[in-house]
Amino acid sequence: MIRIMIHIPVNVRSWLVNYIMDNQNQLEKVLGDEIGIFTPHDEEYASDVCDQWLPQAIERNIVPDIAVSMAGEYACTGNTHFETIFGQIPSRVLEKKKIRNELLPLIDKQSIFYPFSLTPLTMIYNSQMVDEKDLKHSWTDLFNPQYRIIFPERDKPLCRAVGAYLKANYPDEFVDFEKRVSYSGSPVSVGKALCSGEYDMAMTLMTFAEVAQNEIVAINKPQEGEVLMPQVITCKKGCENKVMPLIEILTSEQVQEYLEDQGVLTMRAGGQELENLQNNTMLSKWKDWNSYLSEIAAFADYKLQ
Questions:
Q1: What CA dihedral angle connects 83, 85, 91 and 96, to 10 degrees?
Q2: Which residues pair with 122 in a beta bridge?
């Protein structure tokens, strides 16, 4: 059986699972094997850490043949050498797919991570509790001690993405921020917490922020650009060529267009634009995947003094 792990934002995960299932019979004929589709919530992969599946997969020897997953997941493997577990994505994939210029820095020189999409993350605030003229429209607004801040549960991928960004770029301010922020609930529930007046500001997916906007909740659009939470494709070592038909379907125009309709930023040239993407701080300061994963791990391991 060919194992497929799908670990992308919940607002698009079900659609992608169903899309693969709709094409399952045809794919199994091409692959010459059965397909098993998994998410982090399936019993074989589930853990006490929210949405984390890779450590269990390695320990139980059930690493998926192909995964499209939150990139931050790969920060939880400790000293594991990726090249011993994952193979290189065939170069013909990169040669065939045209990638937008702004996202070229995300191409992995080792070809282990193939960028699939990026989910923009932003801030929302209670406009009845926070005067917009007092905002800097910056991620540094989170450091203002007069604001009560709520993030979803700390081990959720979006919190790790934003937390890593804050810790890496504002290490001094981050210490006090960690003492004040409340980690609770989901990307949807933090909007409800703002509406109740319990909190002044929150962080969530851009798509959820747009839906949450009303007479109370407003978007605090950061001038540095949204934090972009990457999703990547990986292949188990030795399976790189076997899963090519699955890579083709995951990077197909139909899948990419659907993701864009849901507010996800895809890698393809000519895809939906994100405002001011060329000046996005996260992209302009991007070093490499090892550095990114190290920042995620540093946030995950951070303990209050």
A1: -140
A2: 204
Asked whether the whole model's pTM tops 0.70, one would answer yes
Helix (H, G, I), strand (E, B) or coil at 245: helix
**Rounded Cα gap, residues 257 and 235, in angstroms:** 23
Please write the tens of the pLDDT for every residue from 191-244. Answer: 899 999 999 999 999 988 998 889 999 999 999 999 999 999 999 999 988 899
Residues 6 or more apart from 65 whose CB is under 8 A from it? 2, 3, 4, 235, 236, 239, 242, 243
CB 241 within 8 A of CB 67: no
Evaluate whether 164 touches 154 at the Cβ level (below 8 Å).
no
CA distance 131 to 135: 7
Pair 82, 236: CB distance under 8 Å: no
Helix boundaries (H) for the chain: 10-22, 24-31, 54-59, 91-96, 157-169, 171-180, 189-195, 206-212, 244-250, 253-261, 281-284, 289-301
Distance, CA of 247 to CA of 68 (rounded, Å): 9
What's the CA gap between 237 and 228, in Å, rounded?
28
